[in-house]
Design goal:
alpha+beta, 36 helices, 23 strands, eight-stranded mixed beta sheet
Amino acid sequence: MLELWGIVIVFVVCPLLGALPVIAWITQAMTGRQLAQIGTGNIGVSSAFYHGGTLVGILAVFSEALKGIAAVLLTRTLFGEESAWELIALITLVVGRYSAGRGAGTTNVVWGFTVHDPLAAVFVFLLAGASFTILRSRQLAKFGVLVLFPLIVALLHAEEPARIMAAVALAALLGWIYKQIPDDLNLSIEEAQPESQAAFKFFRGAQDTLTLDDELDAAFVGQKAARLAEIKRWGYSVPKGWIIAPYEDPEALIEMLQPSELLPFVVRSSAIGEDTELASAAGQYETVLNVTSKQSLREAIARCRASYDSPTAVQYRRDRGVLEAAMAVLVQQQVQGVYSGVAFTRDPITKQGDAVVIEALPGNATGVVSGRVTPEEYRAYVVETDNFTSIQLEGQGNVPAALIKQVAYLSRHLEERYHGIPQDIEWTYDGQTLWVLQTRPITTLLPIWTRKIAAEVIPGLIRPLTWSINRPLTCGVWGGIFALVLGERAVGLDFNQTATLHYSRAYFNASLLGEIFRRMGLPPESLEFLTRGAKMSKPPLDTTLRNFPGLLRLLVREFCLLMDFNWDNRRRFVPALSELGQEFVEDLDPVRLLARVDFILELLRRATYYSILAPLSAALRQAIFRVKDGEIDNSRTPEVSSLREIQDLAINARQVLPEFNPDKAFEQLAQTPEGQEILDKFDKLLQRYGYLSEVGTDIAVPTWKEEPQAIKQLFVQFMQTNEPPRNQECQAKKKRGFVQRRVNLKGRVTEIYSRLLAELRWCFVALEVVWLKSGLLEQPGDIFFLEFEEVRRLVESFEPDFVEQLQDLVQLRRTQLAQNGQLNPVPLLVYGNNPPALPLRTAIASPDHVLQGIPASPGQAEGRVKVLRNLQAVPDIDKDTILVVPYTDSGWAPLLVRAGGLIAEAGGRLSHGAIIAREYGIPAIMDVKSATWMLQDGQRVRIDGYRGIVEISNDLRPDLRPE
């Protein structure tokens, strides 16, 4: 029993004790200052001394010492003296201390360890004190102690491995925390409390000169220096450089360097807040070239620092909302460039296309960036696959083409390193080496909007009414999920900016999602991995550990997802759908229809939560347990279950009507009692699945109930072929069961969500009928060109001015949608919030006539291409047809099963088309970029659903060949 209480103290009481912000309370009570909002933001002993003075610092030491001693003594009363549990208690105390107050817990550990093992503490203190006094390096002393004290514990207690392991774990934890938080000793001594300045000068020791070989913190030395250090660690060529931190005396570095005519230096700014995604600060701060003496180096550093406070720089920061911070200075060896220039990984003027825009000229890069000389301009297209790289070059000049291609290749790879964020890269070539002088985001091309995932979630052309309802629902749920994981780290993120419309199509904010995933400790491609089966890199361990509590909260939600849905389904969804089914929308007036819409939207808010989490949960489980797609039963998915029932009914119909005319099958069935029974069952089936449509998430698209022609065609086709589905049986039942439960849940959620959306659509259609009769609207479909709040205005408050301009507004939006519908191909990425009105059509290189996508359904097929951009005109499709579509939703299912293969521009292994294709043994490849543009009707292709490859033939049908 005592050990149980001891475990409670170690793992519950000690973290809570560490989390108590006693230092913050003391400082605020005595000085009125909030440590979390000033300086480094740390809540520690050193910040108490720095911002509060000697008395506050002493009280802070006393409070933290008591915490460490209390943790050890409480543990000792239950586990005995000098046990490993005392060190574990210190570990949990430090975890609580860091997670709640961004403090390292050094004082807790020092005093706690002294009580735990006085002899070892004396040895550590003597050796550490002596080494610091002699070497005067606080970095060496700080990290040296972390090696020293576990070593001394091991020497003194070699017979206690548990104690040694706990000491090693405690040292490793402290070392990790030291790397995560800025050091208060780096703050300006002049701004510390006067009585604390002497102590800070002593403990700062000999300042270690920072270089570009170190791992630098952008919050301390600025983004420019930190990025150059980062890309140098990645293996790119960066000139040797040294960093003078803000408020640091540069004399030591000046004395160390030996500038001369033969070895000139360049002095550059690296201000905190410069070269970020918010502001580039290009040209705002001083850069001094050709520094050839110590005196000129001293003057250049002073000029660079002074430029931070220039009126133009101050105004620039104010205009862009950049916080006032400080200026670090970067001193680098100056490269004598033979050719130099800048490269933009995306065109900052047109904001579109795949070209790397390069400006270059002989000599140093200064001439290009200064704007005093007109450089040569080149455009390079980099096409790279697993076994193929091609660089096409546009433009001619005096700079060698081979060098321009090398710059383009380097630029594209740097962009990939920075998660696809367009980069502005300054470079120079000295005749042997291509040097990177700077890389920063092109701020005018942010945020980046992507069609990936969005093209599958809500595909096709989107009308205003659909978007005005879908966007708040989707963004709200995603925001709630992200806020759950991030907690306080969600501050500053606007989740309403998760999605937008460009060219009447949905785009997700890749920049925002990438930032969210990085804050969550996950790779930026996490969402793509979960939804589309893309590859994902390993998440960084430090940020994952930092977000562990939030990820644990999300994991609890995932674990309880089925239970929560069952509860909501019984209490909300089933009664609500039953209530909706008892009321005919045709009998309701506009006011009651609007009330019905509000009722459905309230249900949809909760249903959207499940419609997002259930597929993610199923995908995550499938990835973890490595269950193959073919081992999963998707029969609960509405489009699969509906097809199975249609097929079963068609088999029965074939028995009733062995010989029939396909064009008159329904009329012939109606002539016999058995056939009439089949038709009655078909009508019931159509009623049951009538909520499905071509685009399940778009309420502007008619449902099967409204337009059943495609289902009737499929029924007749099944009567003709009479082929059973070729779904595979599961081979790994135990693993599949854990995944299958989530797949089943996903199917149930899809049904509820789709039924609610259909009910919502039918409300608006009924409202439109009323307004068509009154003359408020002119033609069917007009209501979907209004936003929801505009619909509400028309119902609740009849405004003559708004009604007068209503027809013009609808017509304008109809015209815009029609224009956007002619756009092909649709840009995969859009840069910035104001894309060009008409995107450029840039040629897409296709090496050896091969296109690559995501393998979604195994098998191989060869046939003629049929490009189908919508379901408005259903063509003749057979097993010789390779269907090429922009996306696949549940409504496409009747068409897909008739084809010999499928190629889709959007989607992944878990998309509707992929599931149907696997169910019926049809090879399918998803995510083939610009497929509906590059492939032509009648063109012969061969698709490989195992590798995700489309091989293109130049063999066209005779009637399609040019004369």
